[in-house]
Amino acid sequence: MKLITECIVTVFYIGRLPIAPGTWASMAATICWFSFFHNLDISILAILISIIFFIGLFFTHRLLKTIESHDPSFIVIDEWVGQWVALSLLPVNVTNAIIGFVLFRFFDITKLGPVKYFEKMPGAWGVMIDDLVAGFISLAIILIFHSFIL
User: In which residue ranges of the chain is pLDDT below 70?
Assistant: First the structure.
């Protein structure tokens, strides 16, 4: 079970990369979104994101019980979920991929506004939900931007 936990929370060991594992995980999530989600119904995507969120929550909780750190950088399942939220309602194209990636990373790294508040939640919830909030903020900004452009 330890191997499965490690594989899931690190998203197949992306989280074990020595430099910027969260950024690499977000990039992998963006590439996956760009490659596979062209015709995916939004309800299916919402279910998929929810399933990954709760799987991440479960396995992050299991891992945190065995280590000292509150939010170790090698746990990147949260970046995967947050990045997909940031891109979830957008047309699949290179521009949206880049803007969604940059905005999500900005809010995830800086922890501005409510992201910081949710990061302080205890345990696995704090690890997972701050990235979810960063994803929703990023998505909202992109959708507002799109409404002014179109």
Answer: 150
Whether residue 68 is contained in a domain is answered as yes
Report yes or no on 51 lying in a domain.
Answer: yes
- Contacts of residue 13, defined as CB under 8 A and 6 or more positions apart, other chains included, come to 6, 7
Per-residue model confidence as pLDDT tens digits over 112-129: 999 999 999 999 999 999
Instruction: Give pLDDT, residue 150.
Output: 58
What's the domain range around 94?
Answer: 41-149
* 122 assigned to some structural domain: yes
Burial of 123 (0-12, 13-18, 19+ CB in 10 A): middle
- For the chain, the domain total comes to 1
Q: Looking at this protein, which amino acid is placed at residue 114?
A: P
Structural domain contains residue 67: yes
Q: Are 124 and 60 in contact (CB under 8 A)?
A: yes
Burial class (CB in 10 A: 0-12, 13-18, 19+), 127: buried
* CB 29, CB 12: distance < 8 Å: no
Task: Tell me the C-alpha distance between 12 and 18, whole Å.
Answer: 14
